Amino acid sequence: MRANSLALRLFLSATAWAVIILLITGIVLSSLYRQAVERAFDRRLGVYLRTLVADVASPEEGSEKFPQSLGEPLFELPLSGWYWQVTRLDGQKGEVRASRSLWDGGLPHLQIYGIAASPSGSREGYVSGPEDQRLRLVERNIDLGDEGRYLVAVAGDAAEISDEMRSFDQALIITFSILAAVLLLTTVFQVRFGLAPLKRITDDLAAIRSGSSERLTGTFPEEIAPLARETNALIEANRQIVERARTHVGNLAHALKTPLSVMVNEAATRGGEPFAEKVLEQADIMRDQVARHLERAHLAARTTVVGSLTEVKPVITALARTMEKIHRDKNLTIDVHADESAQFQGERPDLEEMMGNLVDNACKWGTSRVSIEVVREATDPVNDRQTIRIIVDDDGRGLSPSEREQVAKRGQRLDETKPGSGLGLSIVVELAALYGGSLTLGTAPLGGLRAELVLPATPT
Questions:
Q1: Which of 119, 194, 294, 343 has the highest CB neighbour count under 10 A?
Q2: Distance CA 389, CA 438 (A)
Q3: Helix 424-434 to helix 274-303 angle, to the nearest 10 degrees?
Q4: Cα–Cα distance between 249 and 111 in angstroms, integer?
């Protein structure tokens, strides 16, 4: 999941909500369990409290003492954390009787802390006992009329509640951690499964761009099916526009060439006249301008075609063999080193035209050797695309910086004894620019001219 991707946004949002829901659920469950544990603990204390209340209300004949253990040995152990206490409220000295475990201490009254009594008449709460023990205490007021009013209290060690809650919270954390991991894996699966059609569209578009496919194929979910249909319609409309542009370019070329030919022929029949010479001069300029702009329009129409790719090595190899035959009299050696995987993202005629001009130029000026190297370069981080670099070197005399600038201009020739029109390198520059590439001239290690042509490559 890349940064700023739809998949990452969905994953983070789902993860955030899952974590929030799990935290809230954990807190609620922990709170509910604590209440349940406290109620169970209070019921246990309530049993002892009712036993004491019964003893206070109906003491055994001849006995003024309350039972000491209540069936629980912890009430016998000093400072065990389990205590009971009976306080007479209507006496002047506030008579107090307590369990042996309380030793010389006493239990505080919940009534002092403002805790209200429940419908059953008892109060429950946490207090600090002897030696700062944390206790859970239950107390109840008893009014026996003439026999007096009493406050009966029973307390138990709250550490049992804390230990129970600690065990439960640990189990809850482990369980929810496993659940969170499962939810995260499920979220990843859902995001990948849900966005799989978009990934398929991306792959299909890359295939169309590389030329291995012509349209989006297959069945898509209802939500993105309109996107696929409109994309296919756009691709088809693009093809139709390109075909119409090619047709118009061809028609315009034929429409203009015939009148120009008539003008040239008429002027040629009146050779020697100043007017005829002027017409011939301007007609040549018009013919050159028409050819140039028609060529640019034709090339621009071709580069807008989606889905064209060309294997580079077969084109270079075939071109090298042809040039060796054409320049047989010079006994040239043409070395070719091409990456097998290099593919030009464009049409084969355009690559043949660019490379034909560069290699032919190198063969014309080279003495004995021409080198052609094709290198596939890494992805450009600026525009996120791949390129191929085609390097053509010769062992001729080379060119100075000013001469390199001059030969790239249309119609400029440095040596009139060499065959050609002076349009070759300018055509390469213009055609490469239409594809988003470039042509750079420099000095070759062989001593002559180096031409480096950079063109877009199909993605791997």
A1: 343
A2: 10
A3: 30
A4: 103
Q: How far apart are CA 262 and CA 268, in angstroms?
A: 10
DSSP secondary structure of 173-195: HHHHHHHHHHHHHHHHHHHHHHH
Per-residue pLDDT, 416: 42
Phi-psi region of 45 (alpha: psi -120 to 50; beta: other; left: phi over 0): alpha
Give the strand pairing for 369-376 and 149-157.
unpaired
CA 403 to mean position of chain CA atoms? 49
How would residue 421 be classed by pLDDT, with cut points 50, 70 and 90?
very low
For 368-401, the pLDDT digits (tens) are: 899 999 998 876 555 557 889 999 999 988 888 7
The structure tokens listed for 384 are 């996120």
Structure tokens at 204: 């299909």
Beta-strand (E) ranges in 348-436? 369-376, 386-394
Q: Tell me the Cα Rg of the chain.
A: 49
Inform me whether the pLDDT recorded for 110 exceeds 60.
yes
Furthest-apart CA pair in the chain: how many Å? 161
Angle 41-42-43 from CA coordinates, rounded to 5°: 90
The conformation of residue 414, written as its DSSP 8-state character, comes to S
Determine the Cα–Cα distance for residues 314 and 312; give it in Å rounded to an integer.
6
DSSP SS3 for 312: helix
Of the candidates 32, 52, 263, 289, the residue with the CA atom closest to the CA atom of residue 165: 32
Nearest-angstrom CA–CA distance, 316 and 342: 11
Percent of the chain that is helix, strand, coil (3-state, to 5)? 55, 15, 30
**332 membership: H or E segment, kind and range:** none
For the record, the structure tokens of 327 come out as: 């320049």
- The answer to whether the CB of 157 falls within 8 A of the CB of 41 is no
> What's the token pair of residue 155?
């307390």
Instruction: Give the bridge partners for 439, in sequence order.
Output: 453
74 — pLDDT class (breaks 50, 70, 90): confident
Give the integer Cα–Cα distance in Å for 407 and 397: 15
Query: Where would I find the beta strands (DSSP E) of 68-196?
Result: 83-88, 96-98, 122-128, 134-143, 149-157
Confidence of residue 257 (pLDDT cuts 50, 70, 90): confident
